[in-house]
Amino acid sequence: MVVILKPTTSEERKNQLIDWFRAQNLGVHVSVGEYHTILGLIGDTRSLDIDLVSSLDIVESVKRVTDPFKCCNRKFHPDDTVITVGDAKIGGGNFCLIAGPCSVESEEQIVAVATEVKKAGAKILRGGAFKPRTSPYAFQGLKANGLELLKLARKETGLPIVTEIMSVSTLDLFEDVDIIQVGARNMQNFDLLQELGKLNKPVLLKRGLANTMTELLMSAEYIMASGNEQVILCERGIRTYETLTRNTLDLSAVPMLHELSHLPVIVDPSHATGIARLVEPMALAGAACGADGLMIEVHNDPIHALCDGAQSLTPEQFLHLSRKVAAVRQAVQA
Ligand code: PEP
Ligand code: MN
């Protein structure tokens, strides 16, 4: 249920009402907008007398919210959420390019790629240190050493870093990471989501290989209900019967998620297609349909990459993509 307060409501009256809801075992999510304050009620509101609440002189209107997701629901928070890390902003009209290799491989590699992607307009550096690989025999990432190398690249370039966590057991290692990524395979690792919900740090949540948009929002809800409201949603392709591309990029998720939720939505065309030459066209399409950012895999030597070389762009290709994305954004804003 959402309770929209009149713009003239005093702090005191607002707090009295919040206390009254809490006394009835309801969680209250407060969203202060430019004109209105919205109280989003979480919990069993069936016994609440909606007529009584509507009749209060400070209440403008009351609406029942039947969607299972509450904290991430746009009805609870009509304004776009903007995530800020260093100089980068994502959401609410702020567009952000995130780029870097699939995996951190060496100091030379990560610093070289970070320097190049920064020059080309990236605002955040990506790089996997803990890699969820289909095969246990494939390169599993440099793990803790990889995180140290990412921090070194951050020091060299000033770019904030985003990297994937695979298990709650390694959470302490991520203390100095700017954004923690939850990969597609962990989207419904609810223990992990709840632990990340206790942090004051942005979480980039990727859509699972076979998950619906509602399930993605419910996973965001796990993080937010535990107290962390800084969630970025990522469409990275879903599994369909198509085999020519690695996944099928569901771009309809971008406007749909924006409609349903106030959280920023970014697109990852690299894992969606798995093919370097398809990354730019799908990145442009993502920018055109309103994504708040793109996550692109870039490698200085894709042929020798230890992971996902076939979908990695060279720094030159990324620069080309970055320029075209800027042009598309301008065109669609016209
Ligand atoms: C990644 O971004 O490194 C990754 C493994 O992506 P996904 O979880 O989308 O497969
Ligand atoms: Mn990858």
Structure in a nutshell:
This protein is α/β, with parallel strands linked by helices and 334 residues long.
What does this structure look like?
- It is elongated and about 65 Å long.
- It is built from 10 helices and 14 strands.
- The strands form 3 sheets. It has an 8-stranded parallel barrel, surrounded by 5 helices. Strands 2-3-1-4 form a 4-stranded antiparallel β-sheet.
- α5 crosses α6.
- The two termini are 37 Å apart.
- It binds phosphoenolpyruvate (PEP) and manganese (II) ion.
Task: Give a quick set of tags describing it.
334 residues; alpha/beta; eight-stranded parallel barrel; 10 helices; 18% strand; binds phosphoenolpyruvate; binds manganese (II) ion
What's the structural blueprint in terms of helices and strands?
Layout: E1 2-5, H1 11-23, E2 27-32, E3 37-42, H2 50-55, E4 59-63, E5 83-85, E6 88-90, E7 96-100, H3 107-119, E8 124-126, H4 143-157, E9 161-165, E10 179-182, H5 190-196, E11 203-206, H6 213-225, E12 231-235, H7 253-260, E13 265-267, H8 269-273, H9 276-288, E14 293-297, H10 315-333
Parallel strand pairs: 7-8, 7-14, 8-9, 9-10, 10-11, 11-12, 12-13, 13-14
Antiparallel strand pairs: 1-3, 1-4, 2-3, 5-6
The site of manganese (II) ion has 5 residues, from loops.
Rg calculated over all Cα atoms: 21 Å
Q: Structural class, from secondary structure content?
A: alpha/beta
Q: State mean pLDDT (0 to 100 scale).
A: 97
What is the N-to-C succession of helices and strands? EHEEHEEEEHEHEEHEHEHEHHEH
In order across it, which strands form the biggest sheet? 7-8-9-10-11-12-13-14
Would you report the number of β strands?
Answer: 14
Q: What molecules are bound to this protein?
A: phosphoenolpyruvate, manganese (II) ion
Distance between the termini: 37 Å
The largest sheet is:
8 strands, parallel, barrel
Strand content: 15-25%
Shape: elongated
Approximate helicity band? 25-40%
Number of helices: 10
Which regions have little confidence, pLDDT < 50, spanning 5+ residues?
Answer: none
